[in-house]
C-alpha cells in the first residue's frame, strides 16, 4: 500500500504536522503515533501490510521528524495529546482506530482515556500510559527540563550518516536496520555534516508530571477494546505495569519475539495480530 507525504497546519495551535498517509480517503481511519525520538517511518512496514480499505495516517509527532515543535515551554504529555485531538478534529474523523508505540502508546492511552467515544479500537505497542513520578521526582525532572529549555544546547554534528546511525543504535536497544530507517527522516544536513531534526529539548525525554494514580485514572476510563503487543525484550519492566494492565477494562495481551521496536524488528507477527484485532485481516 503506497504512502504519500502528508502535511497540515493545525488551525488552533498553528503547529505544522507532517507524516505519511496511505490507503484511501474513504477507508477505515487508522492513526499511528511513534515513539520518543522516532518518526512516522516507524510504521512503514505496518503500512505496507495494511489492506487498501483503510485510511492510515502515520504522523510525525510535534518536535519529531518533519513536524514543528510544541510551542509550550514544558512540552507536557497533554500538549502532545491536544495536538493529536486537534489533528483528528481537522481531519473530520469522528471515530478511528489508534495505534501507538512507546511515547505514542503513552499518548494513545491518554487520548483514549480523555475521549473514549472517539476510539474504535486501541493498539499499544510495548507501551501503556505515560511514565509517572513521585512529587519529588517531578520537581527534579522539571528543573532539568527547563534548564535545557533555557540553555543554548545544540545537537551534535556527525561527519556522516553512518556515524549518526551508530549513535542512534547506542541510544537504545535498537537494530541497525531499524536505526537506519528512522535516521533517514530524522537527520538534516548542516555545516560539517549531519545533525538531528528533533526538538533539542527531547534530549531529556518528556518531563514526568503524572503520579501513578493519575495515570491509572486515565486507563480506567478507556472503553475501546485494547490490544497490548509486548516484546519479549520488553521495556515494560517496572513494577507498576501489571497494575496498569489490570486498569484497562477490556485489554488482551500478545507477546512477540523482539525488542522494544518490535513492530519494526518483527513486523509480520505484529501486523497479523493487529489486523486480526482490528478486523481487517
Automatic annotation (TrEMBL):
Entries under Pfam families matching the protein: Abhydrolase_1 (PF00561)
InterPro entries assigned: AB_hydrolase_1, AB_hydrolase_fold, AB_hydrolase_sf
Superkingdom of source: Bacteria
One term of GO molecular function: hydrolase activity
Key words of the record: Hydrolase
Membrane-crossing segments per the record: none
GO cellular component, one term: membrane
Location of the AB hydrolase-1 domain: 29-267
Entry's family note: Belongs to the AB hydrolase superfamily.
Protein known as: Pimeloyl-ACP methyl ester carboxylesterase
Amino acid at each position: 500500500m503506497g504512502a504519500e507525504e502528508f502535511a497540515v497546519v493545525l488551525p488552533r495551535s498553528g503547529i505544522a504536522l507532517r507524516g505519511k498517509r496511505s490507503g484511501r480517503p474513504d477507508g477505515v481511519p487508522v492513526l499511528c503515533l511513534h515513539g520518543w525520538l522516532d518518526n512516522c517511518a516507524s510504521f512503514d512496514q505496518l503500512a505496507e501490510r495494511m489492506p487498501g480499505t483503510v485510511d492510515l495516517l502515520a504522523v510525525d509527532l510535534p518536535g519529531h521528524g518533519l513536524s514543528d515543535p510544541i510551542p509550550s515551554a514544558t512540552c507536557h504529555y497533554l500538549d502532545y495529546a491536544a495536538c493529536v485531538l486537534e489533528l483528528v478534529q481537522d481531519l473530520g474523523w469522528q471515530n478511528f482506530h489508534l495505534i501507538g508505540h512507546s511515547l505514542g502508546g503513552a499518548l494513545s492511552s491518554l487520548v483514549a482515556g480523555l475521549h473514549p467515544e472517539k476510539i474504535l479500537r486501541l493498539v499499544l505497542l510495548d507501551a501503556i500510559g505515560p511514565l509517572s513520578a513521585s512529587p519529588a521526582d517531578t520537581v527534579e525532572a522539571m528543573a532539568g527540563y527547563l534548564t535545557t529549555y533555557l540553555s543554548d544546547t545544540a545537537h551534535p554534528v556527525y561527519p556522516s550518516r553512518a556515524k549518526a546511525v551508530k549513535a542512534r543504535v547506542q541510544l537504545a536497544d535498537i537494530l541497525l536496520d531499524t536505526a537506519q530507517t528512522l535516521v533517514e527522516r530524522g537527520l538534516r544536513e548542516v555545516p560539517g555534516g549531519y545533525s538531528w531534526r528533533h526538538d533539542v529539548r527531547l534530549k531529556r525525554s518528556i518531563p514526568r508530571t503524572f503520579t501513578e494514580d493519575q495515570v491509572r485514572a486515565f486507563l480506567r476510563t478507556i472503553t475501546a477494546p485494547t490490544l497490548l503487543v509486548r516484546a519479549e525484550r520488553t521495556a515494560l519492566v517496572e513494577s507498576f505495569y501489571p497494575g496498569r494492565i489490570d486498569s484497562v477494562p477490556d485489554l488482551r495481551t500478545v507477546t512477540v519475539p523482539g525488542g522494544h521496536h518490535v513492530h519494526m524488528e518483527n513486523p509480520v507477527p505484529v501486523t497479523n495480530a493487529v489486523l486480526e484485532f482490528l478486523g481487517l485481516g
